[in-house]
């Protein structure tokens, strides 16, 4: 067993062990090791998003394995690229951890990144990063994508008459979060090593909370189908639908029976479907003329409602109050 | 006086005040507000680098104003883009701060970013970001650049016979750091509000440590002049020259008289020139045929030595031991 810490081996040795675990990427012209990387942007544009995960606010080391953290950091960024209709080409990763962290934990993190990329966005590479130290784990990922000549699908394009669909799951991550919180409370605040893993083995909601698989390939497919507006559901269906409604100056009218059918199929509560975030489903509006498939790029498509003239989000005609997640007031 | 904290006003109001302070950018197609941004990459490639500043390891709130932090975060990233020979097009900024932070401090941060960009890379925009909370200030910037059809200048291109030059200052930031540390020790560990500002007013080295002006426009100019290898001196001349030497399989032979003349001109010690980082000068190797100018894009150029067959870094023929900065062992 290799119990060396970062402080034991130093930065060069950490990089020597960390970098080879990461995928190179099909679009990479100059990878890690120089002042900057160079990445192909074949159509003369690139899509970019950034997302940070901080210990405490966004992650708990008694819940997530290092593999989970790498996977989840990839998922949340890849989902935002997909939500524009783009194909992810590359990531850069800044990672700061305590000096006492084991080198093998960083290797597991790199493997989680690599496995997440392989599962969600094969061909995407890690082209650079920044390793540092912090008292609490800090993960900042920036992701890039290629629109392949197509227009980006914004939040603002929904039109009255469009159908409102979700691709992927809703409410499972929040349900899993609830179970992890309950188990932690029962354990006196902190889970024992291995406990989260055992919970996840028996419970898909916990698995999805710890290592969500975003329907990344569905993003460009939905764009090609004519998606008029799209976003990654990271804060909950009601809140994220309200963003589409506001940006599009339209109403998103959700159908209660469809929401309940999805909740039943996924084994979660209606409230979880409406307000749970972080499954990283894609919320998309599609023109009425389209024959809706049941799956897009392997992920389930569920019709949830329709775009109407008006504003806000309704459920069976009644306004739905979005439950905001405000990091400054949480 | 507006003493509202982030927790008082919430995320939407913070964004409403923060975003308008940031430059849009000439290359921006879709800016902040959607899942991701879209940026022009006219020659079908983009350059990307990421750099994180963490309270404690990289920044101190008793030294740096919020304006300084924004400026410095821009400078360190823009310098890495310039060191590839590219023109910066855009940045994304992830910022996590305590909830008790004043909204006006975030406004000062945005103004520092904007002012740093205006001074170093006019036309560059802030296209996205991520605001969150953390016990200690966390700033993760990712920057993008455009090579305008030229080859990237890597660390690996130095050839025997090339001249070794620095563009910008060396050793001033480290000298300023030393003075801030001394003043802090004298003050019992922490500087009083306003003390760092007063030190900086009288001392260019302190100013450069807190808010360095990287010679960003010199990067593409040096590339166009035929620069064979280039990097941003972030860890000190000796260590960064050793990186060029290793990547290029060559020796960087520094001239003691030239180093001493530069030290005298800048009013710092030889050791500071050799081993001080964070001025963000560009270290460049240029073919012997070039008539060296005294300035490049407004920044002073100093010839410091020559590339020879061999390995490592020498000063007047004697090996120079690079003094490593290892974040995991510091």
From TrEMBL, chains A, B:
Q: Which Gene3D superfamilies match?
A: PurM-like C-terminal domain (3.90.650.10), PurM-like, N-terminal domain (3.30.1330.10)
Q: Which Pfam families match?
A: AIRS
- Give residues annotated as binding Mg(2+) 5: 235
Single Gene Ontology BP annotation: thiamine biosynthetic process
> Would the keyword Glycosyltransferase be found if you checked this record's keyword annotation?
no
Q: Check the record and name the InterPro entries matching this protein.
A: PurM-like_C_sf, PurM-like_N, PurM-like_N_sf, ThiL-like
Q: Where does substrate bind?
A: 58, 278, 325
Which residues are involved in binding ATP? 129-130, 155, 234
Q: What is this protein called?
A: Thiamine-monophosphate kinase
Task: Report the source organism.
Answer: Agrococcus pavilionensis RW1
């Amino acid at each position: 067993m290799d119990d060396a810490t970062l402080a034991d081996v130093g930065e060069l040795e950490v990089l020597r062990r960390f970098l080879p675990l990461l995928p190179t990427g099909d679009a990479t012209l100059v990878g890690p090791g120089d002042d900057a990387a160079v990445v192909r942007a074949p159509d003369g544009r690139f899509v970019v998003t950034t997302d940070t995960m901080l210990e405490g606010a966004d992650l708990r080391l008694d819940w997530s394995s290092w593999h989970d953290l790498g996977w989840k950091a990839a998922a949340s960024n890849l989902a935002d690229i997909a939500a524009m209709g783009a194909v992810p080409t590359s990531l850069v990763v800044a990672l700061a951890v305590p000096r006492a962290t084991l080198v093998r934990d960083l290797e597991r993190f790199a493997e989680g990144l690599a496995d997440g990329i392989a599962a969600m966005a094969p061909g995407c590479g890690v082209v650079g990063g920044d390793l540092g130290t912090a008292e609490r784990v800090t993960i900042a990922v920036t992701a890039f994508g290629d629109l392949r000549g197509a227009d980006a699908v914004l939040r603002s394009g929904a039109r009255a008459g469009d159908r409102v669909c979700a691709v992927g799951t809703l409410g499972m991550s929040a349900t899993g979060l609830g179970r992890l919180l309950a188990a932690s409370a029962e354990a006196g605040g902190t889970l024992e090593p291995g406990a989260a893993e055992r919970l996840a083995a028996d419970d898909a909601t916990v698995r999805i909370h710890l290592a969500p698989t975003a329907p990344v390939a569905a993003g460009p497919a939905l764009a090609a189908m004519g998606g008029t507006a799209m976003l990654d559901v990271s804060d909950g269906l009601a809140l994220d639908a309200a963003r589409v409604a506001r940006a599009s100056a339209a109403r998103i009218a959700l159908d209660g029976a469809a929401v309940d059918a999805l909740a039943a199929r996924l084994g979660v509560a209606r409230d979880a479907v409406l307000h749970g975030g972080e499954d990283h489903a894609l919320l998309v509006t599609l023109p009425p003329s389209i024959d809706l498939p049941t799956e897009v790029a392997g992920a389930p498509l569920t019709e949830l409602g329709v775009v109407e003239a008006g504003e806000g989000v309704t459920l069976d005609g009644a306004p739905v109050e979005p439950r905001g997640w405000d990091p400054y007031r949480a």
